[in-house]
Design goal:
Layout lengths: L3 H6 L2 H10 L10 H14 L1 H7 L3
């Protein structure tokens, strides 16, 4: 699972890749902070999805 500090250190392109992998809708148009919060929201609601897809 990702934490906010880890996500904030990533570049927008990296966050978009994560969002794409997690099937977050309209991720292409989101700003960095919006991407961070969408990813955090998704893993709060459905942690199993993120566990299996997190980069190693």
């Amino acid at each position: 699972m990702y934490n906010i500090s880890e996500l904030n250190e990533k570049l927008v392109g990296e966050l978009r890749e994560i969002a794409k992998t997690l099937n977050i809708e309209n991720y292409e148009s989101l700003k960095k902070q919006e991407l961070v919060y969408k990813i955090l929201d998704l893993q709060a609601v459905n942690p199993e999805v993120v566990k299996g897809k997190k980069e190693r």
